[in-house]
Amino acid sequence: PSCVLKRLFFFFFLSSPSTSSLGIIMTKLPPYPPVIGSTTLSTASMSTDAPETVITTAGALEGRELEWAINTPELTAEHAAINSNIIRTRFPPEPNGYLHFGHAQSMNMNFALSFEKLGVPMENRRTIFRFDDTNPDAESPEYIDSMKRDLEWMGWQPEKTTYSSDNFQTLYDLAVKLIKKGLAYVCDMTKAEMEAQRELAKKRCAARAVGADPDVEAPIPSADILPGRNRDTSVERNLKLFEEMKLGLHDEGTLTLRLKMDFDSPNPNMYDLVAYRIRYTPHPHAGHGWCIYPNYDFTHGICDSLEHIDYSICTLEFETRREPYFWILWALDMYRPKVYEMSRLNVEYTVLSKRRLLKLVNAKYVRGWSDPRMPTISGLRRRGYNKEIINNFCNEVGATRSAKVVQMAKLFHVARLTLADTTRRAMAALEPIKVVITNFDEEAAKAGENGMTFEVQNSPTDASLGSHNVTLTGTIYIDSEDFKMEDDPNFYRLTPNKPVGVKYHGGNLICDEIVKDGDKIKMLKCHLDSSEGRPKPKSYITWVPSDGIKCEVRIYDHLFTQPEPSDRWEEELNPESEVIHSNAIVDPSVLELVDKKDVDEWKSNQALQFERLGYFVVDTDTTFDSATREGKLVFNRTVSLKEDKTVKKVSSHEEEQNRKRVEQQRAIAAARDIMMTIDPKDLFKLAPEYKDKYSKFDDTGLPTHLADGTELTKSAKKKLEKERAKHAKKFAKGKK
Length: 736
Known about the structure:
The chain is α/β, with parallel strands linked by helices. A 7-stranded mixed beta sheet has the order 12-25-26-27-23-24-13. α10 crosses α11. The model is unreliable at 1-5, 11-57 and 645-650 (pLDDT under 50).
């Protein structure tokens, strides 16, 4: 069996005398001495040489108070002696994916905004970059490397970089300490038994909350389930089994180490949390030295304390984790940092769930983690969003405790403001039409000393950015969007026999003949008019000379068709989120800026403003050699020049789809109104979606049997209970 092979593999590395010669690190020494029988914390590697400044933080970044969160005078004094006037935060991502929008907000909060809220001077600010790497099954060196590079690219400078796994020995020793104090025990309950135990504890708590007798409403069938057959076992037994777990003497899933917390708590996170589990998986950072791993709840508070963190900042879904966070530190008599929860960042037309992001990558819906449509830092960088854009966006969004969905238009607006003053211009055609100027030689002869070469400022607003030259040639290329076969009074560009201005040349271009190949336009024959009495054109079009550079241009739209993707998010993917123009052409003034040697996936690549088309960036797929003009040149559009407010023409099929969508939305709204009249206890009896689905119910109104008499499984009941809890919240809110 695989579990046996894993254990044999582990024993080989544990017992091999030549382990060090293989370059394999066994149990790493922690950066701080284990906190065993003492509350002394090391000051190794911690910077405390800041000027003495009085810092007032009262009232800032405060959360729900708990008795366990109160430090003793001794711990407070010790922490103050170590940190002095330093205020320290931490940015602790789990390396199980790539950093995304949410991490960008967290970085902004932990490296900057939190200190501003607290009024901390620059010289007293410290932030630790910590890899919260306790789950080797989901983590990888690729993710670790990408996070390091993204943090550096974003411009944040941590005090130091740490790994939770560097504290594995310390964490193990602290777990042993809890066992010796009678606050932890080795448990052999199965996952199903733990779920039953948890559900029973929740029901008993719910009964107590309404003044009912829990022994009547939710009687305990056996002490094996609650409090559990292992909870009151001896310290000696638990020390022995925990040591055996560490040595690899038990299979995965057979034993866990649990904390002896509180089954009477209204917070299910206090129901004897699992602190350690057996996993025969090599760790991407710590190597093969461990086959038991601590879980997140046990680890992160201890690491916060070991690293002398002042403010532990997380998102609101962790608010109910306050109890175990502070209980563990209280039980170990360690310093308790302040904890502050902020709302999670949600952005329109995208998803930030790592599970969904991983599905997007693995199912090939996108090109990878760095696809320009992805909300990852790598994807944003590849699309052309630089660190200034992302950080400015995070500053505008801010950090509060109120839930919000940020409009994508806000990011686009910040991008335009940032790129407008720093990006040099060029001309391009996405779908080029060849134009032959029939009187070019005649016009060139009249052009004067500079001929048909024109100096163009790289930026229309900043002369310090320099200039470049563009040369009008006898054959040019214009974008297909700039030509129409038939005249239209609302179309101000080129049509047959209707003049349009030529950018930078200043004269008029008049189409005399359309050369077609079947239904496709092959070429336009036009002439220039630079006479003094020529009609004044209503607009000027851009063009690319005959020696323009062929390229591929990718135009990006929202990844999803819905602003807030639902549980059916895969059906809501936008089939037009990427449109590729494979025969585009750009003017040769950019030649020296787009060479493959200057393209790097870990930096902001060359950005350009294609006049009238938007802001673009050189993509990492580029293999173009500017010296030979060989290889592929690829651009991604970052954002259009202006917000697109045009009304898109829709087909009859799209109209029908839109009509159905509107009807569906109205039906959903009507159903929602009906639901708000249904008491939670009657949800599964009266709600339309559950009508006639169940035949029997318990005293609380929870279904126990399907309509055909089939008894519901515990898992099915658990899901229904969650649905009822959600409805109860909405129902209560609607009654206010």
